[in-house]
Design goal:
By secondary structure, this protein is α+β, with helices and mostly antiparallel strands. 29% of the residues lie in helices and 18% in strands. It has 10 helices and 12 strands. The strands form 2 sheets. It has an 8-stranded mixed beta sheet with strand order 1-2-10-7-12-5-4-3. Strands 6-11-8-9 form a 4-stranded antiparallel beta sheet, with no helix packed on it. Helix 3 packs across helix 6. The relative contact order is 0.16. The structure holds Gibberellin A9, 2-oxoglutaric acid (AKG) and fe (ii) ion. Gibberellin A9 binds next to strand 5, strand 12 and helix 9. 2-oxoglutaric acid binds next to strand 5, strand 7, strand 11 and strand 12. This is Fe2OG dioxygenase domain-containing protein. It holds the Pfam family 2OG-FeII_Oxy. It comes from Hibiscus sabdariffa (roselle). Keywords: Iron, Metal-binding, Oxidoreductase.
Length: 342
C-alpha cells in the first residue's frame, strides 16, 4: 500500500529543497505597473453597495468588504485556533491527516497532485463538524476549538447569504422570487460550506517558492480572512498578478466557478495564488461557500435568451468538485464543452 508522504517540519529547513523550487520568475510575473490598479474595497453599509459589487464581480472577480458586521473577536479566535493547530508537532498533526480519498483533515492542498513541485504551505480542511479530527489533535480541549469553528461558520454563512443577494441583485435577480433554493426567506439557509485553514511558514527563499499555486475556487463565492502578512495575488487579464493587501477588518470575496456558471459567465471566477514571505509566516482562513448537495447550478434563466445561450450544463457541487479533481483548471471549460458536444 502506498504510504502517505508525511509533511516535513518547515521550521527546520534553512534552505529551499529542490522539491519546493518552482520555476517561476517573480519579476516577469510582477509587472511594476500592476500595483497601479487595486482590488476594489466596498463598504457594505454604503447605499450603492449593490452597484459597486456588480461592477467588481464583472471586472475583477474579487473585492474586499468592510463594515461586514462580523465581530472582530471571532477572527482573533479562529486565528488562535489555527495557530494552535499548525504549531502542533508534525506527528500530532498527522493524526488528523486527510485520508487519500477524503476531504477533511490536515495535509497539502488538494490541488497538489497536479504539480510536480511541493507548495510551501499546510492546510486543514473542515467539512461538517471538525470534532473527530480535533479530538485527535487536542484530546483534552477540542470542544472550545470546535465551538470557535461552529461560530465562525454561522457568521460566515450569514454574510455569504447577504453577499449572494447583493451579487445576484446587481444582475436583476431577486433571490426571493428567482432562486428557489435560496429558501422562503432568501437567506440561503440550506447552503453548505467548507472551511480551509491555510498556514504559510516563513520561507528561506520566497522568490522560488509557491505558497498555493494559481487556481480558481470551486464555489459560488469564497470569503477569505488573511492575517497581516501579504501574499494573496489575483490575475488581472492583460495586466498581470496583482497583490491583494491585507486591510484591517476587511474580508476578501472571490467569485468561484459555480457563480461563474450561475451568472452564465457574467461574473468570471478569478485565478488567484498565494506567495510566501522570508520573515513572516502567513495565515488565511477561507470559507468556501456553495449550494446544498441536491441543488443543480445552471445559468440563470434571466441571463439566458436568444442572443445569450446557456454556456454551461447544470451541475451539482459534488459533480463539479469531481470534475475539478480530474481536470483542475480546465474544469469549467469541461462543463462547457460537454454542453457543446451534446
Ligand atoms: C469544497 C472544496 C473546495 C476545495 C475542495 C473542497 C475542500 C477544499 C477546497 C480547497 C481549499 C484550498 C484551495 C483548493 C483549490 C483546494 O485544493 O482545496 C480548494 C478546493 C476548490 O475550490 O476546488
Ligand atoms: O491564502 C490565501 O490567500 C489564498 C487561499 C485560497 O486561495 C484558498 O484557500 O482557496
Ligand atoms: Fe482559493
Amino acid at each position: 500500500m502506498p504510504s502517505i508522504r508525511p509533511h516535513p517540519d518547515f521550521t527546520s529547513l534553512r534552505e529551499l529543497p529542490d522539491s519546493y523550487a518552482w520555476n517561476h520568475q517573480p519579476d516577469s510575473d510582477y509587472p511594476s505597473s500592476a500595483d497601479a490598479e487595486s482590488v476594489p474595497i466596498i463598504d457594505l453599509t454604503d447605499p450603492n453597495a449593490v452597484q459597486a459589487i456588480g461592477h467588481a464581480c464583472k471586472t475583477w472577480g474579487v473585492f474586499q468588504v468592510i463594515n461586514h458586521g462580523v465581530p472582530t473577536h471571532l477572527f482573533h479566535m479562529v486565528e488562535s485556533t489555527s495557530r494552535d493547530l499548525f504549531s502542533l508537532p508534525v506527528n500530532q498533526k498527522l493524526k488528523a491527516a486527510r485520508s487519500p480519498d477524503g476531504v477533511s483533515g490536515y495535509g497539502f492542498a488538494r490541488i497538489s497532485s497536479f504539480f510536480s513541485k511541493l507548495m510551501w504551505s499546510e492546510g486543514f480542511t473542515i467539512v461538517g463538524s471538525p470534532q473527530e479530527h480535533f479530538r485527535q489533535l487536542w484530546p483534552h480541549n477540542y470542544i472550545s476549538h470546535c465551538d470557535v469553528i461552529k461560530e465562525y461558520k454561522r457568521e460566515m454563512k450569514k454574510l455569504a447569504g447577504r453577499l449572494m443577494c447583493l451579487m445576484l441583485g446587481s444582475l436583476g435577480i431577486t433571490a426571493e422570487q428567482d432562486i428557489k433554493w435560496a429558501g422562503p426567506k432568501a437567506d440561503f439557509k440550506e447552503a453548505s460550506a467548507a472551511v480551509q485553514l491555510n498556514y504559510y511558514p516563513a520561507c528561506p527563499d520566497p522568490d522560488r517558492a509557491m505558497g498555493l499555486a494559481a487556481h480558481t475556487d470551486s464555489t459560488l463565492l469564497t470569503v477569505l480572512y488573511q492575517n497581516k502578512t501579504s501574499g494573496l495575488q489575483v490575475l488581472r487579464e492583460g495586466v498581470g498578478w496583482i497583490r491583494v493587501p491585507p486591510v484591517a477588518e476587511a474580508l476578501v470575496i472571490n467569485i468561484g466557478d459555480l457563480m461563474h456558471i450561475l451568472s452564465n459567465g457574467c461574473f468570471p471566477s478569478v485565478l488567484h495564488r498565494a506567495m510566501v514571505n522570508r520573515t513572516c509566516h502567513r495565515l488565511s482562513i477561507a470559507y468556501l461557500y456553495g449550494p446544498s448537495s441536491s441543488v443543480k447550478i445552471s445559468p440563470h434563466p434571466k441571463l439566458v435568451g436568444p442572443s445569450q445561450p446557456p454556456l454551461y450544463r447544470p451541475v451539482t457541487w459534488k459533480e463539479y468538485l469531481d470534475t475539478k479533481a480530474k481536470h483542475f483548471n480546465k474544469a469549467l471549460s469541461w462543463v462547457r464543452a460537454e454542453l457543446v458536444s451534446l
